[in-house]
Design goal:
- The chain is mainly alpha-helical and 228 residues long.
- Helix content is 60%, strand content 7%.
- It has helices at residues 8-34, 43-122, 127-139, 161-166, 168-172, 186-191; strands at residues 202-204, 209-215, 222-227.
Length: 228
């Protein structure tokens, strides 16, 4: 394996192993010198040179290890900063999605409103048409009786008693569908009561009571409804 392919840790361990082996050989040589078994000339010097060489390599590798330790600490700080930035990005992404949803809803509502405006513009009615329609309603005596109207006259004022009995109020109060030509008999109107009922009948609906009684004279004759 090439030296460049080995990590600093592996290189340090290798140098330490060499130092250990050389130290043992040197110690053994010193022990032999005491027993008068001298080693070959120059062998101790060679071992010392190798020991010094390995020690120099060890010191250089220690400097490299210290520098790499500093770089590793900086990398850890940067990793924490990256995690923080990533959290900020995720939060911003969530807020952008919420804003996108709100904008999409607003755009949809605006389009629907524009469609309604366009539809209303296409179906708009001129003031002249409204005046003509109001004149036609007034001419048909839908809101007031003819000038020569008298009690018992089958013509309007609208609504007639028959139409009142056939409407929602009549069905809810179970009024009998009687009357003459859509109107009450003159004596019943004069007495201020409905046939078969007591004067000023009460109609009870959902949460309120409706008091009905006739009022007015002649063409102004009408049925008044009062909430009580």
């Amino acid at each position: 394996m090439a030296v460049s392919d080995r990590s600093t840790k592996e290189r340090l361990l290798s140098v330490l192993d060499d130092l250990e082996v050389l130290s043992r050989e040197l110690i053994e040589m010193l022990a032999l010198s005491r027993t008068q078994k001298l080693p070959q000339p120059g062998e101790d010097t060679q071992i010392l040179e190798l020991l010094v060489q390995r020690d120099g390599e060890f010191q250089e590798l220690m400097k490299v290890a210290v520098e790499q330790g500093k770089v590793h600490q900086e990398m850890q700080v940067l990793e924490k900063e990256v995690e923080k930035r990533d959290s900020d990005i995720q939060l911003l992404q969530k807020q952008l999605k919420e804003a996108e949803h709100i904008l999409a809803t607003a755009v949809y509502q605006a389009k629907e409103k524009l469609k309604s405006i366009e539809k209303a513009r296409k179906g708009s009615i001129s003031s002249e048409e409204i005046i003509k329609y109001a004149h036609r309603i007034s001419a048909s005596n839908a809101v007031c009786a003819p000038l020569n109207w008298v009690p018992g006259d089958p013509r309007r004022p609208y609504p007639t008693d028959l139409e009142m009995r056939g409407g929602m109020l009549g069905h809810m109060s179970n009024l009998p569908p009687n009357g003459v030509n859509g109107h009450l008999p003159g004596d019943a109107l004069a007495a201020g009561r409905l046939p078969g009922t007591s004067p000023a009948p009460l109609m009870v609906f959902h949460g309120f009571t409706l008091l009905i009684h006739p009022s007015g004279v002649g063409r102004n004759r009408r049925l008044d409804c009062v909430l009580i």
